[in-house]
Amino acid sequence: MIRICLPSGKSLEDVIDEFNPSWRADNVVWDGASSPWSDIKEVFASLQGCKCAYCERVLQGTPSENKVESDIEHFRPKKKTVVGRGEIPAKSGRADGYAWLATNVANYLLSCKTCNSSLKKNFFPISGSVGLKNQSVPKLNAREKPVLLYPIGEFDTDPEDLIDWEGFTPVAKISVATDAFANARAERIIAFFGLAQRQDIQRGCAEQIIKVWRAFQLRNDPEEGLSTSDFLRRCQSEHTEVHAACTRAFLRLVATDSHQARIEVRKAEKYLAELKNLYQLPKKLKRSRKIP
Ligand SMILES: [Zn+2]
Fold it and tell me: Would 112 disulfide with which of 52, 77, 215, 289, CB 3.0-4.6 Å?
């Protein structure tokens, strides 16, 4: 997860208005069945570099045509909120949901189907007190202290201040002794979205680490240096790059401890090789069945 920066000097509302001047001006009302947010899905795809806001997985296809791959996700559920996963301790947001935020753009982000439909669902774990009806997002944030993190703009903590990466494995950045809530929040977010277990994320991060390491080795090469330096610069500075949070953490490691960075590259190579063997296994079994 990485902070999704807004264009300099612009609010999320400004960006929406530029894309579709009538969407907010018309005071769209959610009738409980329609999905008016689909009309501005492309704005979030563009802001997020066509990546899921929670897991940074690259979303395939164009946002308008691909309803199988991605959704506009309501950070605070618009309907009933489920008590359950992720609380610190066991608490949840409003039992009847946050219907008044159904058309509030500061409650939107683009998310993959796994993060949205399979994992987040209607969960909204909080560590503070349940928010009051019709409260604004800043007031709700102050009162509820959400466990999950809203990464667009500066409404919430920068994800990179909470979650660090050891190679392609996400870990809490802050110790329990330093800040118990920040530590618990990071641990819960990592567990909630399966960031340390999901094969699609782990594979993407492992591939990116190897790619960055190779680019770093070639950064002074007379022929490849220009393109690799440009790639490394984008990895460092642009949140829209593939698995940007993991990549940036790895770049920091390369700069401070190249020996450990090499160890992490070997781990990534080993993980990808094991994955390849896993997928080749059915073929081998199939072949072996033909032998009399
Ligand atoms: Zn996702």
Answer: 52
pLDDT at 78 over 70: yes
Query: b/e per residue, 58-79, with b = 16+ CB within 10 A?
Result: ebeeebeebeebbbbbbbbbbe
Largest Cα–Cα separation, the chain: 73
Q: How many whole angstroms from 223 Cα to the centroid of ligand 1?
A: 37
Cα 4 to ligand 1 centre (Å): 14
Cα 289 to ligand 1 centroid, rounded to whole Å: 38
In angstroms, the CA 185 to CA 265 distance is 28
70 alpha carbon – ligand 1 mean position (Å): 9
Model-level pTM?
0.88
Q: Each residue of 19-45: b (16+ CB within 10 Å) or e?
A: eeeebeeeebebeeeeeebebbbbbbb
Inter-helix orientation angle 244-256/258-290, to 10° = 130
| Residues, Cβ < 5 Å to ion ligand 1 | 52, 54-55, 57, 112, 115
Check pLDDT > 80 for residue 69.
no
End-to-end CA distance of the chain: 51
Q: What is the sign, positive or negative, of the torsion defined by CA atoms of 70, 74, 76, 79? A: negative
Distance of CA 234 to the CA centre of its chain: 18
CA 54 – CA 245 distance, rounded (Å) = 11
